[in-house]
Amino acid sequence: MSAEPSMEEILSSIKRIIAEEGEGTQARARRARAAPQPIEPEPEEVLELSDPMPHSRMEPARVEQPRVEREMARVAAPQPVAQPAPQPVAPPQPVAQPVAQPTPHHYAPEPEPAPQPAQPPRPAPVEPAMSDEPILSQRAAAASLGSLETLSKLLVKPEPESDGTLEGLVREMLRPMLRSWLDTHLPEMVETMVAREIAKITAQMR
Q1: Is residue 139 in some structural domain?
Q2: Does residue 103 sit within a domain?
Q3: N or C: which end of the chain has fewer CB within 10 A?
Q4: Domain range spanning residue 185?
Q5: In which residue ranges is the amino acid composition biased (Pro residues) (predicted)?
């Protein structure tokens, strides 16, 4: 940026212009004196203050005055201020947006299930007390015993002597076989019959 001219610089410029104009006037005067002039007496003119000055005498002033004014105007005129070149503007840097943190959700703890009431212990099944009394009454036992004694008497009946008939021979042949069959199956038959009677009695009691 250029600074404005000071007052001293302005005065120096004006003096330089006036000196240049004065030198030009003196040069013209020397050229005029060097040229041959006819020697003629010129009438002396008495100039009045009110008379206008001749055109030839005013010309240097008219020429000099505009140059001085122009120089003063040029010096006094504000010099154009050099504008600084615009600095390249860097593009704005993208500003990182803060990442929104997820808001923590506070979940209420689920209520614990109420404790189940303790189940009372089941009573152990009560076994029916075994009675020492016999299942059969004395009358039934006596009847059964009588039947068994009768059957036993039949089995141990003394063998009659063989009469030599066909029936006697067959009886003697079947007797060992019948004894063997009874020894094998009689206990099981008695047990089955007794169990059947016990089941009938138990069903009637329910």
Answers
A1: no
A2: no
A3: C
A4: 161-206
A5: 81-95, 110-126
CA R_g for the chain: 86
Q: Quick check: is 117 in a domain?
A: no
Q: Give the pTM.
A: 0.24
Q: Which two tokens stand for residue 183?
A: 């020894």
If we measure between CA atoms, which residue out of 153, 150, 169, 151 comes closest to residue 161?
Answer: 169
pLDDT tens per residue across span 149-199: 777 666 655 555 556 788 888 888 888 898 899 888 888 888 898 899 889
**CB-CB contact of 71 with 17 (8 Å):** yes
Q: Find which of 28-37, 58-67, 150-159, 178-187 is predicted with most confidence, using mean pLDDT.
A: 178-187
CB atoms closer than 10 angstroms to residue 41 = 5
Total structural domains in the chain? 2
For every residue of 51-105, DSSP letters joined together read SPPPHHHHHHHHHHHHHHHHHHHHHHSPPPPPPPPPPPPPPPPPPPPPPPPPPPP
Q: Determine the number of helices (DSSP H) and then strands (DSSP E) in the chain.
A: 4, 0
Count of CB atoms situated within 10 Å of the CB of 71: 16
Q: Is residue 114 part of a domain?
A: no
DSSP string of 108-137, one letter each residue: PPPPPPPPPPPPPPPPPPPPPPPPSS-SS-
